[in-house]
Design a protein that fits this description.
Number of strands: 10
Distance between the termini: 36 Å
Radius of gyration: 21 Å
Order of helices and strands: HHHHHHEEEEEEEEHEEHHHH
Strand order of the largest sheet: 1-4-5-8
Number of helices: 11
Shape: globular
Helix content: 40-55%
Bound molecules: flavin-adenine dinucleotide
Length: about 375
């Protein structure tokens, strides 16, 4: 692992900066986010630049690069004030699921479109009755002739309105019949226009480019070819997806933190009260310096986790720690930025309030701060668990 950006990564950062300043960049993203609409032009620009195919193997039309490069891209986008949840679930998670565990047919069918941006997936694991206890999910896929019939409910699923397919986590063995809590999970590709598949929007405070949805699967019939990998081994594939999800989330959180901190620093240099720039006061300078330090540390941990994943390691502890540190640092930076702006911190024209909920959510999703601490306590420190 190198601490420095490679020439390729430096190009990504520079290209994203240029994109953000143009007509398909930050202004387009913000206008769409405030309307809860998807920034199609930004998505297409990312596809045209080859960025949606970073993780797609070359033989399927992608760049065949790794999570390290993907994290650089996502941090760069966050640093320019542009976050796309669909990049986490589609460009990272679905792409890795298919590239690593998909059949030849699934790869040929979906990977080229994922790289071109024409195929989009959402990802659905969370259920109202299971919440953070994902292994207790109840959505059940039962054998039905040469395929499966799926019944269940999911909630807080991002970007379903933008996706042709859901990467759906189900049980194929109900948990009361499973040998242990992990076994009996399976991953399916389900079309979002399949008969029996309905969705209901969830109203949230987020200014996001993807909406949140509750999904209802009422005897949705899928062919056997919709199953990813082997039936009942979903937990193994999930570990390959959830750690990159944490890395991608961490990269976005660091980036967004850098974006709001940049605004704070510029304002603190410019605004004079009591005749000196407010940034001269340590009461403001130190919180900004602390936020900058915490963002840098979180960025390093994110890079480490991404490198480990690319080397074939699970990177569980590192991905979890990176995600928690990044969410905390991003939120700290956003809070400091609002404070530095005084009353203008809540004025819409300064563009901080509309970033707040997106950044605040990083402490909850894709995995909460408490569940990360539980993981670190149990798996890194070897402490007994209470739940
Ligand atoms: C904006 C947004 C987008 C999302 N997108 C997706 C998506 O695309 N796909 C998807 O599948 N899911 C998605 N989620 C769901 C997200 O992953 C869950 O919200 C998250 O995992 C927490 O689950 P929960 O909301 O059910 O909270 P709960 O599990 O009900 O937890 C509530 C609180 O209790 C705490 N808690 C629970 N158990 C423990 C414990 N043992 N010890 C300590 N504290 C505990 C939690 O940390 C949390 O603070 C999204 C959520 C949001 C907000």
């Amino acid at each position: 692992m190198s601490f420095d950006l490679s020439p390729e990564e430096t190009l990504i950062v520079e290209a994203v900066r240029e994109l953000a300043a143009g007509p398909n960049g930050r202004a387009h993203w913000r206008e769409r986010a405030l309307a809860n609409e998807f920034p199609e032009r930004l998505w297409q620009a990312l596809a045209d630049a080859g960025y949606l195919g970073i993780l797609v193997p070359e033989e399927h039309g992608g760049a065949g690069l790794g999570l390290k490069e993907m994290a650089v891209l996502m941090e760069a986008m966050g640093s320019e004030g542009m976050a796309l949840l669909l990049m986490i679930v589609s460009t990272v998670m679905a792409t890795i699921a298919l590239a690593r565990h998909g059949s030849g047919e699934q790869k040929r069918r979906h990977l080229p479109g994922l790289a071109r941006g024409t195929t989009r997936f959402c990802f659905a694991i969370t259920e109202p009755n299971a919440g953070s206890n994902s292994f207790r999910l109840e959505t059940l896929a039962t054998r039905d002739g040469d395929g499966y019939r799926i019944r269940g409910q999911k909630y807080f699923i991002s970007g379903v309105e933008q996706a042709q397919h859901v990467l759906l986590v189900t049980r194929t063995t109900p948990h009361r019949e499973a040998a242990d809590k992990r076994s009996g999970l399976s991953l399916f590709i389900v079309d979002t226009d399949a008969p029996g598949f309905t969705k209901q929007v969830q109203d949230t405070a987020l200014n996001e480019t993807e909406r949140q949805w509750t999904l209802f699967l009422d005897d949705v019939r899928v062919p056997r070819s919709a199953l990813i990998g082997e039936e009942g081994l979903g937990h193994r594939y999930l570990f390959d997806l959830l750690n990159p999800e944490r890395v991608a989330g961490a990269a976005i959180a660091v980036g967004l933190g850098r974006y709001v901190l940049k605004k704070a620093v510029a304002y603190a240099k410019d605004r004079k009260v009591f005749s000196v720039p407010i940034g001269a006061h340590q009461g403001l300078a130190h919180p900004m310096a602390l936020a900058a330090t915490h963002l840098e540390l979180a960025s390093l941990m994110t890079r480490k986790a991404a490198c480990q994943f690319d080397r074939g390691e699970t990177a569980g502890p590192e991905a979890n720690m990176a995600k928690m540190a990044a969410a905390d640092a991003g939120l700290e930076a956003c809070d400091v930025a609002i404070q530095v702006h005084g009353g203008n911190g809540v004025a819409l024209e300064y563009g901080l309030t509309d970033m707040w909920w997106g950044i605040r959510t990083m402490r909850i999703a894709p995995v909460s701060r408490e569940m990360i601490l539980n993981y670190v306590a149990e798996h890194v420190l070897g402490l007994p668990r209470s739940y």
